[in-house]
Amino acid sequence: MNWRGLVMKTTDGVNGHTGTPRIVPDVQPAEAHDRKGRKREAKRRRDAQRLPDSYERFKILLEVIGEQRHVVDLEDHRARYAMIIMGAINAAVFLVASRVAGNGNLPTALPHWILGVVLVYVAVTLLFILGAVDCLRPRALQRKGLLHWEGALLHDIAEFETAWSEARMDQLNQEAVLIAHMLARMIHEKYRANRRLYGGLAVLIVLGAALLTILGVISVIR
Fold first, then answer.
1. What kind and span of H or E run contains 198?
2. What values do phi and psi take at 8, rounded to 5?
3. Cα–Cα distance between 103 and 97 in angstroms, integer?
4. Distance between CA 70 and CA 65 in Å, rounded?
5. Where are the beta strands (DSSP E) in the chain?
6. Are strands 18-25 and 6-12 parallel, antiparallel or unpaired?
């Protein structure tokens, strides 16, 4: 029980003299707590239905843009991981082929179907490299607003400072919306490029395993 508010009361004795005071708890703090709870609940309901103001909208857009940039970096890392795996496969094929050829086990005239596998492997490797370049290539947003780095380079420092001093929240929100939309399109393009990239990596793994098997069989037979 909350004893923050205390009320001093007295009781009359039998002989009419004032008795000793007794302490009675005040019930107002509990009522105040319930009243604050009702106010918080009413405010929560109002916040759930109201539209965000300009500053709140700008903060939300900045968080969305930051998350989108994180996804772009993640897709670039995935493309680099795929290139590392491709490099390991090519290194293994080259190392085994060099040892087989160095031991004199590689025939001078390879069957046509083996040459076909080698040519397909080389072609897939080149397509894979082109796919990695397409995924990792820089993509400019091509906008001229205050929030775009391309737009900053179109003005000198004094003009850029003046433009920022005259900027309005509706202008900044509009530019942030455009940036979020362009980043979403960029992420879509990178997802599509990475799907093609990892599809080519799967084909490359199968062809690399086939070449390693062929080289191993040739080395054992000869």
1. helix 169-221
2. -95, 120
3. 10
4. 9
5. 6-12, 18-25
6. antiparallel
C-alpha distances in Å from residue 140, one per residue of 74, 102, 143, 151, 159: 18, 49, 8, 12, 23
Helix (H, G, I), strand (E, B) or coil at 22: strand
- Phi and psi at 79, nearest 5°, equal -65, -40
Coil, strand or helix: which one is 222? coil
Q: Residue 50 carries which side chain, given as an amino acid letter?
A: R
Question: Among residues 152, 139, 142, 148, which one has the least CA distance to residue 176?
Answer: 148
Look up residue 81 and give its DSSP letter.
H
pLDDT tens, N- to C-terminus, the chain (222 residues): 444 444 444 444 444 445 555 554 554 677 776 777 777 776 777 767 778 788 899 999 999 999 999 999 999 999 999 999 999 999 998 888 887 776 665 666 566 777 788 889 899 999 999 989 988 888 776 667 788 777 777 778 888 888 888 889 998 999 899 889 999 999 999 999 999 999 999 999 999 898 888 887 877 776
Tokens of 155: 């003005």
